[in-house]
Write a structure and sequence with these properties.
Oligomer: single chain
Number of helices: 7
Largest sheet: 6 strands, mixed
Structural class: alpha/beta
Helix content: 25-40%
Number of domains: 2
CATH architecture of the largest domain: 3-Layer(aba) Sandwich
Length: 279
């Protein structure tokens, strides 16, 4: 089991140069995430949710404020932080085993240790028997479980999830939400989920961070003081979900927008360089 880290985001602001002007994407975002906590982040498209994850994982370092893991400023990517995107980004020429082992590319382990870690994480995501299968032989949900195993195989302190189930059908999505909850409890690490689905956010999160756009700011943090596992039909669950939806009383329809595409390139021969942080 990995040791979870304490994440502190202090007065974070981020902008991009667009047509010789500065476009503010995030403005004065402050958030404290305790070790082992599950935090859900919701908001309309364009509120900077994915940009926030990119800053936490270390893909970008030009910003104002602080992003600290265990009191140390995050600089660059690291095996301490894994990430899963909406698209599984598996290499089509590698098996399930090969794709997961790719997450250990920069790990200081012997070949035997790597093989053992791969076996452990195939079991963790429930894919025993599919070790030699290729991505085209898997369902969308199975492929995403491989992506989650690849992100976890390095035992990161924090797992970041950017709309990981957004492209899946409703039944598969609900099943994988349960699986992600099981994995979170088994691994004991910090998880941060970006989603457009308020029900998903409440089902999984210890708290729901509601963001507003242009530039992205935290509108409210809604605690989810419900025991696990959670019943979606429970009155308490419905009440928390409504509290989150109330924050979008004027723009709640925007939560139904299609999620933005991730900005990283598709799998290619050069992509492993991006996977040193256990994508």
């Amino acid at each position: 089991m990995a040791l979870a880290g304490t994440l502190e985001i202090q007065h974070l602001s981020k902008s991009y140069a667009v047509k010789e002007k500065e476009l503010a994407v995030l403005e004065d975002v402050s958030l404290s995430i305790a070790p082992g906590e599950f935090v859900s982040i919701v908001g309309a498209s364009g509120c900077g949710k994915s940009t926030l994850l990119r800053l936490i994982v270390g893909l970008e370092d030009q910003y104002q404020g602080q992003v600290l893991l265990d009191g140390v400023r995050i600089v660059g990517t690291s095996l301490r932080r894994g990430i899963v995107f909406q698209e599984h980004r598996l290499f089509p020429w590698l098996t399930v085993e090969g794709n997961i082992e790719l997450g250990l590319l920069n790990a200081q382990q012997t070949p035997a240790q790597k093989r053992a870690a791969v076996r452990e994480h195939i079991a963790l995501v429930g894919l025993q028997g599919f070790e030699k299968s290729y991505p085209h032989q898997l369902s969308g949900g199975m492929a995403q479980r491989v992506a989650i195993a690849r992100a976890l195989v390095n035992k990161p302190e924090i797992l970041l999830l950017d709309e990981p189930f957004g492209a899946l059908d409703a039944m598969t999505r609900a099943y994988l939400q349960q699986e992600l909850h099981r994995i979170w409890q088994a691994e004991g690490i910090t998880m941060i989920l970006v989603t457009h689905d308020v029900e998903e956010a409440v089902y999984l999160g210890d708290k729901v961070v509601v963001m507003e756009p242009r530039p992205g700011r935290i509108r409210r943090i809604v605690p989810v003081e419900l025991a696990h596992p959670r019943e979606r039909a429970n009155n308490g669950f419905a009440a928390v979900k409504q509290r989150v939806l109330d924050e979008f009383s004027h723009d709640s329809a925007s939560l139904a927008e299609a999620p933005l595409k991730p900005e990283l390139p598709s799998a290619s021969p050069v992509a492993p360089a991006l996977w040193q942080f256990a994508v």
